[in-house]
Amino acid sequence: MGALTLALIGALLPLPVWLWLRWQVEARFSAWIMLDAAPWLAGYLLLLGLTMRPLLSGGAVAGALLFIAIAEFAKRARLRDSLVFTDGGLLWQVFVHPRFYLPFVPWPALVLGIITGISLAIAILVLEAGLALALAMRLIILFLGTALLGITLRPLFLLPRVEIQCDPTVDAARFGPLACFALHARLAATERAARQARHAPAPAMLRLADPAPHLILLQLESFCDPRRFGLTQPLPHKDLLAQTALTQGSLAVSAFGANTMRTEFAVLTGLEDAALGLDRFNPYFRFARKPIGSLAWKLRATGYETLCLHPFYSRFFGRDKVLPALGFARFDAAPAFQQAERVHGLVSDAAIAQRLVADLSAATSPGFWYVITVAAHGPWQGDDPARTWADCMAASDAMLGEVMRAAKACQRPVVVVAFGDHRPALPMAQGGKETDYVIWRSDRPGDGRAENLNAVGLHRAIRDAMQG
To answer: What is the pLDDT, as a whole number, of residue 1?
Structure first.
């Protein structure tokens, strides 16, 4: 078989997977199809120029596309959402923390993909002989691959008069999924510095009550009242907080079942999605790696100790870089909870409550504790995942009770805010994105006023509660 024929066969190996990926996003065939094909053609040509093995190169690109296609399929099936360019920043977490990702992928597809990929790689390595091409031809192949890679990384010059809608569904259908990733990534990069500069930390403008109250902001994993979905799971402490809350109710978040960082960032900064542009899909990917104005910066400027407690790996979502940029002077992650109680391998909410109670009793100056729980993270074990999740909600509720009792015993007033980052990724919870929140003060009982908010509205309500 001739070298040209082998090269053509290798180039065509990724084609079926690429077409499946385009079909999933309902991409139209148009003049932009070559821009969508450029990434995988670039990858093939570069690998071919380096290895001189067309089947190995084509198979490797096909495998990468298959990974993307399965991720697209799983995300649509579980979260009713499409892949976006910022998901690339989460890729490493799939391999380092597979328990949070792989169980949501249909296991037949996962097993078949792994077995097929390994089998083909072994067969190709054993059977395929490298092409014997002249150095000049190899350089031409590498040059073409590099040129296509340059188009992929800098695609905006191709579209001087074409408006990008900045909607993944619309743009993926128009340009194709890979082209959409490239266009959105580049557009976000060109706008990011100016957006960051507009929202840099500013001098504190908060006029706090006297004495300045502690703030405990509890971001509860997958927290949502199970009674929303017909489950008979009482939450007595959450109900008690709600009865005497300054305000409580439904919290509209931007995503279903995942994307904690979107809710987290909006609550801390009060920034609307429009202020972030395309970085709204994951503000922690690049946008929040530089100092951004936040509640933590404002409280820190008025003398508060600012501390984030998250009993998980500090690099998850890049929080080790992001949280200092959002104004937290300390970030106590997994190492601070090495001896803590665990449930299914994750630090329990009871252990976090124990830590908060100890911190409150020892505090000599006003403090802001931002707590990110993890014990209720899916997938949920057992024959009845919904029941297991509801049991996790009961554990979160018990933590609220411990925090409320410690706040009442504290000499300094304490503002306690609890909210759910997103609904659980369970079939019964689909059809909406709202979670629950409550804002309560130890020194000033409210009347439990009900008010439905979004994450930005919750930021404003927290500031109001702190100001007396």
So the answer is: 55
DSSP assignment string, 284-350: TTTGGGS----HHHHHHHTT-EEEEE--S-TTGGGHHHHHHHTT-SEEE-GGGGTTS-EETTEE-HH
335 shares a domain with 274: yes
345 backbone φψ class: left, alpha, beta (φ>0; ψ -120 to 50): left
Same domain assignment for residues 404 and 458: yes
Which H helix or E strand runs over 207? Answer: none
* Full domain range(s) for residue 178: 3-195
For residues 44-71, give the mean pLDDT.
90
The rounded percent of the chain whose pLDDT value lies above 90 is 69
Side-chain-facing half-sphere of 157: CA atoms under 13 Å: 5
Residue 207, in any domain of the structure: no
Mean pLDDT is highest, among 100-104, 208-212, 323-327, for 323-327
pTM for this entry: 0.91
**C-alpha to C-alpha distances, 314 to 128, 225, 311, 324, 375, nearest whole angstrom:** 44, 28, 8, 12, 16
Total number of domains in the chain: 2
Tell me the mean pLDDT in the region 372-392.
91
Helices then strands, each counted (H, E), the chain: 16, 10
Rounded distance between C-alpha atoms, residue 84 and residue 413, angstroms: 43
Please tell me whether residues 186 and 219 are part of one structural domain: no
Taking 60 as the threshold, does the pLDDT of residue 447 lie above it? Answer: yes
Among 195, 222, 251, the domain boundary falls at 195
Q: Is the pLDDT of residue 107 over 70?
A: no
Residue type, 358: A
Do residues 186 and 155 lie in contact, with contact meaning Cβ atoms separated by under 8 Å?
Answer: yes
Claim to verify: residue 165 and residue 306 sit in the same structural domain: no
- Taking the C-alpha atoms of residue 460 and residue 268, their distance in angstroms, rounded to an integer, is 10
- Could you tell me which of 192, 168, 163 has the C-alpha nearest to residue 180? 168
DSSP state of 196: H
Kindly state the average pLDDT of the residues 8-13: 87
In a domain, 209, yes or no: no
Same domain, yes or no: 88 and 220: no
Give DSSP secondary structure letters for 119-143. Answer: HHHHHHHHHPPPP---HHHHHHHHH
In DSSP terms, 371 is beta-bridged to 218, 309
Lowest mean pLDDT among 101-110, 282-291, 370-379: 101-110
206 occurs within a structural domain: no
